[in-house]
Amino acid sequence: MAPLQGSRAPMEFGGPLGAAALMLLLPATMFHLLLVARSGSARLLGPPPYLPGLEALWSPWALLLCLTWLGLQAALYLLPARKVAEGQELKDKSRLRYPINGFQALVLTALLLGLGMSAGLPLGALSEMLLPLAFAATLIAFIFSLLLYLKSLVVPAFALAPGGNSGNPIYDFFLGRELNPRICSFDFKYFCELRPGLIGWVLINLALMMQEVELRGSPSLAMWLVNGFQLLYVGDALWHEEAVLTTMDIIHDGFGFMLAFGDLAWVPFTYSLQAQFLLYHPQPLGLPMASVICLINAVGYYIFRGANSQKNTFRKNPSDPRVADLETISTATGRQLLVSGWWGMVRHPNYLGDLIMALAWSLPCGVSHLLPYFYLLYFTALLVHREARDEQQCLQKYGLAWHEYCRRVPYRIMPYIY
Ligand SMILES: NC(=O)C1=CN([C@@H]2O[C@H](COP(=O)(O)OP(=O)(O)OC[C@H]3O[C@@H](n4cnc5c(N)ncnc54)[C@H](OP(=O)(O)O)[C@@H]3O)[C@@H](O)[C@H]2O)C=CC1
Ligand SMILES: CC(C)=CCC[C@@H](C)[C@H]1CC=C2C3=C(CC[C@@]21C)[C@@]1(C)CC[C@H](O)C(C)(C)[C@@H]1CC3
């Protein structure tokens, strides 16, 4: 068994108790949303319309479909990539290599789907199977996390994540012990973060749109917007796949239940909530309002992409002409921090852009219900918490230089507000 790390990171998420509560609360919330979205009243805060029995949740076909989907995405991951990127330096000074072929996987999935649909594949029927599919995905996430936990017990100490090896099995199962679990060159965390869940999300959105066509003859403008905005978001993530290698999830967090469930179940089944809501609660949307919403999404995307690209370009090559003129602070690690451009406006401009887009995804659903705004509320909480975790890590990495950055750029996410 791998020894525990010398210096243990402080526990997050409320320790073992918080982790245990989240392991129950997150799947419960996901099923609540799935049930409420199709109910007449669609009340986010009310009780679910009914409690489904096992027969409504369990379907071997749904399990088979989920496993086939994972198999297909794994096969696409293994196809030759246009580029192989190197990750950040690890504790043993090595760097892992990652295939950059996520966008190719999206395009090939779309082609296969197009072929399937022209051969009569009833994609809309997927929208009737969301409950058993979500149950199967949750089951897979639990079993997968257990296997990851067992695997982590036999890896050397340097392969463990800084945060997920507290010695408490519940906490470590939740957060993930091993930083980069792999079999040969197949990296489970990197694969799950960007492929099955994100592509699954747009697939579910499309299925809901096809079902709307079945029911009402054509897709509504609101459904078009939600599908279009979220496809742009997923396409962007896969196009800029290499950038995920510098996120907290890849560099810092282990691969445990939180990310496995988040990637495989939470993202596809809760991030598609607006499209689910629209299928059962059609909303009128005029062109002027639709144009305003498109503008809000465009502003959000502009900030999100501008900020993420600026940081990634700077981290790759600080002398790149696109970032060379920006003002910086030097740190004791030899790395620099940007203090002008997007990163001089607030300390997390990319979160601000992401939140503005989240608002644009909910607005097509009107203002009669709180339910479609769940994503915006959850995402605000997630990013505020994530920002605090990142600040803590940056303070540890950069010490005084980070204090100086906070003095120069006092707002975290929203200028003059937070
Ligand atoms: N849709 C969703 O569910 C989610 C989306 N996201 C999105 O993912 C994206 C990535 O987010 P995340 O991984 O949390 O964090 P960031 O991309 O914001 O990365 C934070 C890191 O950037 C570096 N950094 C911070 N400030 C500066 C600066 N001034 N100059 C240069 N480098 C700096 C630090 O790392 P270092 O110095 O080591 O490089 C810091 O740890 C965001 O756009 C976020 O909105 C995130 C979570 C969920
Ligand atoms: C509530 C719960 C189960 C928490 C787990 C959190 C995960 C759902 C998110 C943690 C970080 C994520 C990122 C994305 C999706 C959601 C999760 C997995 C992301 C892939 C979305 C697309 C973006 O462009 C991104 C690549 C920057 C982003 C990375 C972080």
TrEMBL record:
Q: What's an example GO cellular component term for this entry?
A: endoplasmic reticulum membrane
Pathway linked to the protein: Steroid biosynthesis; cholesterol biosynthesis
EC number(s): the record gives 1.3.1.70
Membrane topology note: Multi-pass membrane protein
The UniProt entry, under InterPro entries, shows: ERG24_DHCR-like (IPR001171), Sterol_reductase_CS (IPR018083)
Q: Where are the transmembrane segments?
A: 17-37, 57-79, 100-123, 129-150, 255-273, 285-304, 355-379
Task: Return the PROSITE patterns for the record.
Answer: STEROL_REDUCT_1 (PS01017), STEROL_REDUCT_2 (PS01018)
**Any Pfam family matching the protein:** ERG4_ERG24
Record's catalysed reaction(s)? 5alpha-cholest-8,14-dien-3beta-ol + NADPH + H(+) = 5alpha-cholest-8-en-3beta-ol + NADP(+); 4,4-dimethyl-8,14-cholestadien-3beta-ol + NADPH + H(+) = 4,4-dimethyl-5alpha-cholest-8-en-3beta-ol + NADP(+); 4,4-dimethyl-5alpha-cholesta-8,24-dien-3beta-ol + NADP(+) = 4,4-dimethyl-5alpha-cholesta-8,14,24-trien-3beta-ol + NADPH + H(+)
Q: Which UniProt keywords apply?
A: Cholesterol biosynthesis, Cholesterol metabolism, Endoplasmic reticulum, Lipid biosynthesis, Lipid metabolism, Membrane, Oxidoreductase, Steroid biosynthesis, Steroid metabolism, Sterol biosynthesis, Sterol metabolism, Transmembrane, Transmembrane helix
Q: Name one GO molecular function term.
A: Delta14-sterol reductase activity
For the biological process aspect of GO, one term held by this record is:
cholesterol biosynthetic process
Main subcellular localisation: membrane
Q: Where in the cell is it found?
A: Endomembrane system; Endoplasmic reticulum membrane; Microsome membrane
* Superkingdom, taxonomy of origin: Eukaryota
To which protein family does this belong?
Answer: Belongs to the ERG4/ERG24 family.
Q: What does this protein do?
A: Catalyzes the reduction of the C14-unsaturated bond of lanosterol, as part of the metabolic pathway leading to cholesterol biosynthesis.
Q: What is this protein called?
A: Delta(14)-sterol reductase TM7SF2
Q: What is the lineage of its organism?
A: Eukaryota, Metazoa, Chordata, Craniata, Vertebrata
User: What's the gene?
Assistant: TM7SF2
